[in-house]
Structures are given as C-alpha cells and as structure tokens.
Amino acid sequence: MTSLTAQTAAKTIPSTAAALPALAPAAAPPPDGYLRPFANERLNSRLGNRLPSGDWKETWSVSIDAAMAPTYLLTSGNSVLAVGRTACQAIGNGKVIAHIVSAGEDAELLPTSSEFLASDRYSRVGSFSLSTGDPTGYLSANGGDDTMRTFVHRRGAHTVVASFDGSSSPHKAVKKQVVYLQIFNGDAETAARDGEMPRLALAMHNDFIVLARAGAIEFLDLTLQALRRIDGAMKPQGLSVDESGRVYLVCEAGQKQQLWIVAPSGEYQSVAMPSAVFHRPPVVGFDHRVYLLALNKIVTVDASGKPGWVYDAPARVAGATVTADGMLLAGVGDSVVSLDSTGRARTLCRTPGEQLMASPILSADNKLLVLTDRKVHSFSAG
Questions:
Q1: Is 133 helix (H, G, I), strand (E, B) or coil?
Q2: DSSP tag of 274
Q3: For the segment 242-255, what is each residue's pLDDT rounded down to a tens digit?
Q4: How far, in Å, CA of 152 to CA of 106, rounded?
Q5: Which CATH architecture has domain 34-381?
Q6: pLDDT tens-digit profile of 68-123?
Q7: Residue 160 pairs with which residues in a beta bridge?
Q8: What is the CA radius of gyration of the chain?
Q9: Is the separation of the CB atoms in 209 and 162 below 8 Å?
C-alpha cells in the first residue's frame, strides 16, 4: 500500500496568500433529493430547489429509534434514510421499513438500484436494500471492527472509501491513528493509500478526490495518483468544494481557527474566525457566500472572502443547507429557520418537545424533511 505522504517535488505547488478573482454564480442542478450528508460529494450542502413560499404544515411523521444517535437525513424519490452513529433506518409508507446496525460516519443513497452505501456493526462497507435492509454486497475495506468509515461514495463503477482507525492497543503506550483511502472497481480494490496521522478531510470534484491533511491539500485521480499538491501550514478540520474546484477549508493555522478559500492553482485567502465553529464542511451558496456553523451562531463570509453577517441563534444549531435561491435553511433547537442574504430570519416550522439533530433538507417534490432526536417529520408549503 502506498503512503499518503509519498509525493514527488514536481507535483508540489506552494500556497500563496492572494486575493482571488470573483466567480460567476453557479448554476443550480435539478432537484433530485439529498443523497448523502452535506448534500453531494463536494460536501457544499447545496440544494437544487428554490424555497417554496407559503406556510408550512406537517404532513406526516415517523418515530425512529432514539438510541441510533441520529445525525443525518437523506432522501431520493419516495425513499428516506435516517442515519445515526449506531444505526440506519429506511422509511417508507409512513413507517420504518428497514433497520441496520452500523458503525460508520457516512452513508449514501444509490437511487438507481434502491440501495444505500454504509458500514455495518462490524465496520464492513457494503450496499444494503432500502426496502429490507439486507446486504447486497460488501467491499474489502481495510481496518477492523473499530475502524470508522468517514467517507463512502459511488461514482460510476468506482467506489471511494476513506477510513480512520484510532484504536489503541493494550501493548502500546501511544494511541495509533491510521487512515486508509481505497478505490474499488466493482468489488475489487484497484488502488489504496494509508498513513499514521489524524483523520483526513476530503471531498470529490468531478472525477478527482480533494484531500486535506496536515500541511497539504492534494488532488488525486481515481488511481490515487497525485496530480497536484498545495503545501500550506495548516491542520484541516472540515472541507468542501465548489463547482470550480475551489476548496473551502476550516483549519487551524498559526494556532487560530481560520477559513481558507483555496484555488486549485495555490492562491488562497484566509479569514480568522470570530468564534469557534464546528469541524464540518463549510456550506457554500451558489453565489459563493460561505456559512460556518458554531454551537449557537452562524458566521458568514462573503464571496470576496470578507467577514459578513453573523446570526446569533436562540438555541443549538444542528445543521444547515442552502437553496437554489440563496436561502439558508438552518435547524435551530426545535425549529427550522430560513435566513436571507441579509441574515434576516424567519421560522418555517417547529417540532415542540423535540430537538433537531441534522440539516433540514428539501425533497425533489419540495417537501421539507426534518430529523429530530425522536422522529422524522415532513412539512409542505401551502
């Protein structure tokens, strides 16, 4: 297996602090659901829908297993998948129709085959039926029972699997942190890299893997060959990518938390954070405004890389997505709040007595889906 740090000098580009040119607004994709955490493989939390107008009314709700520690909600067509730290539950026809015990941090819907990618209780990466939860195939992913699967993505015939093993051995005084990155074609491994280091931050841009590790951002092809490495003095915490290949990186640099906006050519802008934000992929609007979530506030950075408005939330911020018309949908306490381009907030719906656990999402038919600590709720605009 090839080391994650093995490179050649010819592929290295130094990072250079510089103002980045403005980008034209991105075109919104057709609304096709929310297939994975943070919306898509670029992890930028963009929805293809415009926010419908009108008052939102609940149309249905389904109780889930609260012990699954719910974290994400996915949807495609009539399929809904609640993803938790210990289990995944598929929902259809007003009830839970499939349940698997899982041990991963990521999952992805595969709508063409009515399956989803996830890891089971033994950390085996596999595909599972949305209607029964039965496994339909497994991949030979590296690691053992305690290995966390941090990124899984099916792209054509290829599947990308990133893993983190932070388990400690009773025979060693030092905890060992190992990361694995593997590519499968069908169920056969075609490329792999590994290394002893903290977990990776990664996303995909077209057919390229964008990977951040301490001191470098790399662009890899699907054979895991590095096409470009951008060196920089930072430790990554969360990463997303826009349609142009720009990287939006929450990181620690100079012992401070910063947002780096990095062009593929190596130029970057850095923005100091006024308060600590979550170690999660930044939300990037179609106008390239960046939204960063903290415990009880949302911090924005405008398209030019300058600090923008700050929303002081009345309760814990659970997650957020951005619509095709530039509205931020945020889960705040027991409410879904929409924020416009000026930061003006409007409450769309509430789940009294329950706490939102994930980003609110819009289905392809414009239903607002909400995951709480107890239920999945669906709302419609009238």
A1: coil
A2: S
A3: 999 999 999 999 99
A4: 6
A5: 7 Propeller (2.130)
A6: 999 999 999 989 999 999 999 999 888 899 999 987 789 999 999 999 999 999 99
A7: 153, 183
A8: 20
A9: no
